[in-house]
């Protein structure tokens, strides 16, 4: 059979195909299939790799903007907070200034109301008929005194302070008003008040204050004095002097006249003493810590025996008396009220001469003293006994005030 098969001639028919061509066709189909399959696998892997890269890029792109946004949002949030803090600070400062301004306006309104009420009551009382407008004068001198100082007052009346008709003449012709300044006792209408009423009835030289007397209330008394005097008299200057100081009125007037055209002047013997921390000592300052470290000195201020302030400053004290702080020492208090204001401090050494022979030597040298006292006593030592002596040796002469031009 093998022989027969091997030698069998190719079958040919009308539609027959040679087995050789069938084999070639099969081999060609196999090769083509392998080629197509390999090509398909390569394309699929490329597509998958491209998709993977695309996904990675997409994820990376999504992640990066998120980070940037978070940073941007954090920066914006911090900026907003700082902006809000700054705006809040500005609002607080504006409110603080507004409140301060309102407090000053309120104080001025209260002062004006009190003044109007006082004038209304005086006008309604037929026993105290007074001119509605304030009397225009050169200066008002307030002599600070106490209930126990009757002898001191008499020593002044007998020496450098005019009395009776001369006191009224001094006001009319020279524009100089001099008054002893005193408040009332803790029990108004008591023995002390009646004694002063009787003394005033005799001499008519008191300015009574709505103030309770007491040594530790001198700052308050000084403040009320300036407010009361400014409401009663329209003066160019207001002077405060202790009742144990000798004064030459003509020389005081000449000093003030040199500064009459200036708006805000503070005249006195300027000093800067130590802040006393130790309790129990004279002039102890309970609020010493406000002046810095222990051993510091006060700011410059006029010594308390005698000083003068111009009308603008007296008006300022009057309008703001409810919010001006009072320290233990009245001269320190007054100096503190002018810190931060545009005030000219005038150091006038003739207002703090010593008692004889110091004031005598200065007068002989052509520098007569406006005021004399002893530093060791913060006034004339034993002033009741020595005021006449000081007046005789250091006084300008009883007629000097009438011949002095201002």
Kindly list the characteristics that best describe this protein:
transferase; 9 strands; DUF4094; alpha/beta; Spore Coat Polysaccharide Biosynthesis Protein SpsA, Chain A; 51% helix; membrane; disordered N terminus
Describe what this molecule looks like in 3D.
Strand 2 (176-184), helix 5 (191-203) and strand 3 form a beta-alpha-beta unit. The protein has 406 residues and is of the alpha/beta class. The protein contains twelve helices and nine strands. The model is unreliable at 1-15, 40-44, 52-69 and 126-131 (pLDDT under 50). Strands 3-2-1-4-7-6-8 form a seven-stranded mixed beta sheet, sandwiched between helices. It starts with a helix and ends with a helix. The radius of gyration is 50 Å and the shape is rod-shaped. The chain has two domains: 83-132; 134-403, Alpha-Beta Complex (Spore Coat Polysaccharide Biosynthesis Protein SpsA, Chain A), CATH 3.90.550. Belongs to the glycosyltransferase 31 family. Residues 18-112 form the DUF4094 domain. It is a single-pass type II membrane protein. One of its GO terms (molecular function) is glycosyltransferase activity.
Write the topology of this structure.
Layout: H1 2-6, H2 19-124, E1 135-144, H3 150-157, H4 165-174, E2 176-184, H5 191-203, E3 206-212, H6 218-232, E4 233-242, E5 246-247, H7 249-257, E6 265-271, E7 301-310, H8 311-319, H9 330-337, E8 344-347, H10 358-364, E9 371-372, H11 383-394, H12 400-403
Parallel strand pairs: 1-2, 1-4, 2-3, 6-8
Antiparallel strand pairs: 4-7, 5-9, 6-7
Helix pairs in contact: 3-11, 6-8, 6-9
């Amino acid at each position: 059979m093998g022989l027969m098969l091997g030698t069998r001639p190719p079958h040919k028919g009308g539609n027959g195909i040679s087995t050789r061509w069938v084999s070639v066709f099969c081999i060609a189909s196999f090769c083509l299939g392998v080629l197509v399959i390999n090509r398909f696998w390569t394309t699929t892997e490329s597509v998958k790799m491209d998709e993977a890269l695309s996904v990675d890029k997409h994820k990376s792109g999504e992640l990066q903007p998120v980070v940037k946004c978070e940073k941007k949002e954090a920066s914006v949030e911090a900026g907003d907070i700082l902006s809000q803090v700054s705006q809040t600070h500005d609002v607080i400062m504006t409110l603080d200034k507004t409140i301060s301004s309102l407090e000053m306006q309120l104080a001025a309104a209260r002062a004006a109301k009190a003044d109007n009420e006082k004038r209304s009551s005086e006008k309604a009382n037929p026993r105290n008929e007074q001119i509605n407008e304030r009397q225009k004068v050169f200066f008002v001198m307030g002599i600070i005194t106490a209930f126990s100082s009757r002898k001191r007052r008499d020593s002044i009346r007998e020496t450098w302070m005019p009395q009776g008709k001369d006191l009224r003449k001094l006001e009319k012709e020279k524009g100089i008003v001099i008054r002893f300044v005193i408040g009332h006792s803790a029990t108004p209408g008591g023995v002390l008040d009646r004694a002063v009423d009787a003394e005033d009835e005799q001499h008519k030289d008191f300015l009574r204050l709505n103030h309770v007397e007491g040594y530790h209330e001198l700052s308050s008394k000084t403040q009320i004095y300036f407010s009361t005097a400014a409401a009663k008299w329209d003066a160019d200057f207001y002077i405060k002097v202790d009742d144990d100081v000798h004064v030459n009125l003509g020389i005081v007037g000449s000093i003030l006249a040199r500064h009459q055209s200036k708006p805000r002047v503070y005249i006195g013997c300027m000093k800067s003493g130590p802040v006393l921390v130790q309790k129990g000592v004279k002039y102890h300052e309970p609020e010493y810590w406000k002046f810095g470290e222990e051993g510091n000195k006060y700011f410059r201020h006029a010594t308390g025996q005698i000083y003068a302030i111009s009308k603008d400053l007296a008006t300022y004290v009057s309008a703001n008396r409810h919010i001006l702080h009072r320290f233990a020492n009245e001269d320190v208090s007054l100096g503190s009220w002018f810190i931060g204001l545009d005030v000219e401090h005038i150091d006038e050494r003739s207002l703090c001469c010593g008692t004889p022979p110091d004031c005598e030597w200065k007068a002989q040298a052509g520098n007569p003293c406006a005021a004399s006292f002893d530093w060791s006593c913060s006034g004339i030592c034993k002033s009741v006994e020595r005021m006449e002596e000081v007046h005789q040796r250091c006084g300008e002469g009883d007629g000097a005030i009438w011949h002095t031009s201002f």
